[in-house]
Amino acid sequence: LYGPTETNVCAWYEVEPLPPEQTAAIPIGKACANTDLIAIGADGKRVTIPGEEGLLYARGSTVMQGYFGRPENTAASFIPNPFAVGREEKLYCTGDWVTPDEKGNYLFIGRKDHMIKTRGYRVELGEIEVVMVAHPAVEEAVALPIPDEAVGNTINAVATLADGASLDSTELKRHCAEKLPAYMVPEKIEFRESLPRTDNGKVDRRRLVSELTPAPR
Question: Which of 13, 21, 65, 174 is the most exposed, having the fewest neighbouring CB atoms within 10 Å of its CB?
């Protein structure tokens, strides 16, 4: 089952037996009953062809009406449905980039707020993090975009190690290079005992970016 907090559950996918060598994520799936999922591309058109990418929006009985006491956040996340001819209804923007497969299932590509450009390439930071934590010595890892005028962003990373494990940045970069194209391998990797957290327990990415961004000259 898939669904952000704002939609409860809005998609399902029946998982078949998986081969042990599979590394690709399973699909988000299709819309649940009384719910609709719409992927909208950068051109504002509905995405229906495999390989095309768009932001995933949800509508229906599982979607909440808005954020209590936060009208600006509500307006930013809930938009008028451009495909609802003759009626008024809202779509909730999940913030997830997706593409449909041949069976009509949506495949998760990455988060809108974790998608960056570096050296002309679009990169989903989560893909880097998945590869880093696949190393047996790594407990947690976060990939971070550091603004750079020449290339758009450089990619740095911060990781924590499992109890009793030892690892250096060269080894971890080599591990990443085996799984990722060169432009996705972090230029710098820093190890810490723990990662800073926000009030809701998530990794404080903004703080880390601020700490790792060089001061202007």
Answer: 21
